[in-house]
Amino acid sequence: VLVIPYDEEHIERADTQRYAEAVQQLGVGMLIIAMHPKAGFGERKRVNLWVRTPPGELDAVAAFSTGNLNLNLLTGYRLLRRWGADVRLISCVPDGTDVDALPASPPPLRDPARSPPAVMRIAMVGGFEESLADAPIADVNIIGMPPSPDPELLKRWVGLAHATCIFVRDSGRE
Questions:
Q1: Which parts of the chain have pLDDT scores under 70?
Q2: pLDDT of residue 73
Q3: Helix, strand or coil for residue 16?
Q4: Burial of 106 (C-beta count, 10 Å sphere; 0-12/13-18/19+)
Q5: Which residues of 1-15 are buried (b: 16+ CB within 10 A; e: fewer)?
């Protein structure tokens, strides 16, 4: 795993692109840790782990087919164990979805994720950025990395989350 501390003064789009291409060629995962300038890691008590479902899917278990979720889950699990943190698995569902009809803890997600029973499951209605801004406050947000990681986008997401974000790209071999 390549871990890159994000420093907006010293990292540019070309750098993130070069790193993303290198980790793909090497077959390793990548974490970009984008520290919130004031909050840092906060109290190290709450972690929001964002699970993006494929288009047209509501069940978070479908996210496992995208190949960019395992390292996210492992990172969240490590923070749960190391910090004793509360972890929330958060997914976004389209406007108009009846979230009350969605199970609070779908059993299919527990098995593939092997998540401890204390992990809370939240479905946010709306787009990702809107949900990121409205989600329960966390000390760290773990988010799958976009295909082309843009430093300005990462910075915007840190601002919307009001917290440090760890952007994760799977190697596909976790």
A1: 1-14, 54-68, 96-118, 172-174
A2: 85
A3: helix
A4: middle
A5: eeebebeeeebeeee
Residue 6, phi-psi category: left (phi > 0), alpha (psi -120 to 50), beta (remainder): beta
Beta-strand ranges (E) seen in the chain are: 2-6, 30-34, 46-50, 86-93, 120-125, 140-144, 164-169
Distance CA(73)–CA(87), nearest Å, equals: 10
Sign of the four-CA dihedral 128, 152, 156, 145: positive
CA neighbor of 88 nearest in space, from 102, 104, 112? 104
pLDDT value, residue 163: 94
Residue 50 main-chain phi, psi, to 5 deg:
-85, 125
Between CA 43 and CA 124 the distance in angstroms is 24
CA distance linking residue 77 with residue 67, whole number of Å: 18
Cβ distance 145 to 2 under 8 Å? Answer: no
In Å, how far are 18, 28, 37, 130, 148 from 21, measured between CA atoms? Answer: 5, 11, 27, 29, 10
Instruction: Name the DSSP class of 40.
Output: B
DSSP-H helix ranges across 2-150: 13-26, 70-83, 107-113, 128-134
Which residue in 14, 13, 15, 7 sits closest to 36, CA to CA?
A: 7
